[in-house]
Design brief:
Elements (H helix, E strand, L loop, with lengths): L7 H23 L20 E7 L3 H11 L7 E8 L5 H11 L3 E6 L9 H11 L4 E6 L2 E3 L4 H10 L4 E3 L2 E3 L5 H22 L11 E4 H6 L15 H7 L5 E3 L7 E3 L5 H12 L7 H27 L3 H25 L9 H18 L10
Parallel strand pairs: 1-2, 1-4, 2-3, 6-9, 7-10
Antiparallel strand pairs: 4-8, 5-10, 6-8
Amino acid sequence: MLVFGNSVIADSILVLLGITGVVQLYYILFQFSGVGFKKISSVKSIKYEPVSVIICARNELKNLREFLPQILKQDYPQYQVVVVNDCSWDESSRYLEEMEDAHFNLKIITINEQEKYQHGKKFALTLGIKGAAFERLIFTDADCYPASDQWLKQMVDTLSVDKEIVVGYGAYQKTSGFLNKWIRFDTAQNGLLFLSRALKGKAYMGVGRNLGYLKSLFFRNKGFASHNHLLSGDDDLFVNETANRNNVGVCLSSESFTYSKPKETFKDWLRQKRRHMSSGKFYKSSDKSLIGFYFFTHALFWILITICLILKLNLEIAVAILSTRLIAQIIVYWTGFRKLGEKDLIILIPIFDLIAAIIYPLLAITNPFIKIRVWK
């Protein structure tokens, strides 16, 4: 058996572990912490500007029946709901026609499938935006529902204060099982990072489940022209391209959250995650570097910890570094997860953090070889 205790290799591993530990602490304390320490302000507008809610749906009859009525019951003085029925072959068309007859503020835009022209979600969204009556636009998905009837007030209130973009939190329903907890952890951790960055005036993405921006911003930016050839990116790439230090508002009120049905199998979640990650390589260089370096040092940190534990190299120091990072992470995530309604996940942070260190690098390595063929 080789003894590494006093070797150059052992010392080098310890130094590298210390460096990655410091880098990880920096990210946890300064990049993920904004949400937890942000004071949540209540609705303060007296007059609410009219707003259009845009939803794209393809074969979403079940979800439309369940969730569209909740969108139509918002406590808001003047708003329109635009549903783009995108080449559905289920009974969505009939249901939407019935709903349109019953609700004066519901507008249906139907896209019929064309054999010679295949399109993605961005085309459907563009039609919805063009058909929207109002300047302020709020976006969500057909499988989402708002946390309360104050959703629009909270989101539009943020959009109204000299902002062109509002980013909100899109959560997933709580169900039983380990996979559901993992999906919610993955979503909450991502939320801590992108919302905290936005609070610092450095927004790099938003989620289409809960996002808003001005119609004029969309057309001034020529819509999705710069990334229209990509199936993904209608939300994060648009924000990445148009956000600046002053034009993004962040809505953290629990009444402003939306909830979606989570995937029920790991395979389905993996497919969804790959689609979400596929647009990341088109972010601004500074954003790619910041995000990529976090996940690189995160994976390296756990590799070095594992080596130290298995080979018993400087165990006391290695355990101290690991403990310091985990304690800081638990404190920061506790404050943030409470704001996001995910405090039940705190106890699982050590397990999920290790899982993330394995899964995310594997996805990053293999994703370039996987073709995403449909937006749905």
